[in-house]
Amino acid sequence: MSSSSHGSAVSAGSVLSVDGVSRWFANVVAVNDVSMSIGPGITGLLGPNGAGKSTVINMLAGFLPPSTGTVTLDGAAIWKNPDVYRTIGLVPEREAAYDFLTGWQFVLANAELHGLGDAGAAARRALATVEMEYAEERKIGEYSKGMRQRVKMASALVHEPAVLLLDEPFNGMDPRQRLHLMDLLRRMGAAGRTVLFSSHILEEVEQLAQQIEVMVAGRHAASGDFREIRRLMTDRPHQYLIRSADNRALASALIADGSTAGVQMDGDAEALRVQAVEFRRFTELLPRVANEAGIRLYEVSPSDESLESVFSYLVTS
Ligand SMILES: Nc1ncnc2c1ncn2[C@@H]1O[C@H](COP(=O)(O)OP(=O)(O)OP(=O)(O)O)[C@@H](O)[C@H]1O
């Protein structure tokens, strides 16, 4: 189905605003003074597990009130505002336990819950959008992970919302299902919808999102397009583990050059741990210094490349 077939019901240009929002559960601060604005097109909410992504999405969907601050859609408070709910669709992370229903029954029930005039037509349209008509008579319990995701998506789309929120939608999907969903979300974004999806996988977000919001440990760590986020990540200091024919000589040559922030010897000079000041400069510097000193490099591997270390760099910088 082409995106233009949804066009009429989409009030293009919806903007979600999170202003000075914190949310705590007993003594756990899940979201800590976060402000962000999410406009039309596709935005990725990136962060490691426990960063507070689901909590933000649940507040944006009207499932959870903020403890302090405001969450609004086009200026209207979202919490306890049924008018706003009518323009928001949520694809939750958790699997709803409706395995005994067929895809058709599940999507139709959602259309009826929304009180849509012609619930049958709305359910048919939503199932066609996610290309699930072929399996609509089968029970959800028999669906693959990707099919479940699509049927959840259809039920979030029955009322043709201007805003679509998806919590970790690519979790557990195979590459083909992932491409299919990406294509679908791109069409939603191109039709003027405000699409926000969460993920802890940078590559996923890079491929799809024009705008990226990064969260770490409840805080808003960075915001921008993927080039800006990439730049923040590659400009940060990097640690490398290096083995060479003469680690001591290489250490002195690197220290003499002054472009490294620190050089440490591991064990009995079996390896070097080098703190590079800047990624690009270091990748040019290291082979040059080694070459000039006549030292053969055996191994150069990044030692702090985990996503968490990248995120914590962003959050402390
Ligand atoms: N209902 C709740 N009761 C108590 N603590 C909660 C609740 N919801 C979330 N938290 C806590 O808030 C923090 C943020 O959780 P949240 O689920 O929002 O993170 P997330 O980024 O979505 O992570 P994940 O990808 O693992 O779901 C975590 O420490 C979590 O344990």
TrEMBL record:
Claim: ATP-binding is one of the keywords in the record: yes
Family (UniProt): Belongs to the ABC transporter superfamily.
Highest taxon in the source lineage: Bacteria
Keywords: ATP-binding, Nucleotide-binding, Transport
InterPro entries per UniProt: AAA+_ATPase, ABC_transporter-like_ATP-bd, ABC_transporter-like_CS, P-loop_NTPase
Keyword NAD: no
CDD domains on file: ABC_DR_subfamily_A (cd03230)
Any one GO MF annotation of this record: ATP hydrolysis activity
Name of the protein in question: ABC-2 type transport system ATP-binding protein
Domain ABC transporter: from-to ranges: 16-242
Gene3D superfamilies for the chain: P-loop containing nucleotide triphosphate hydrolases
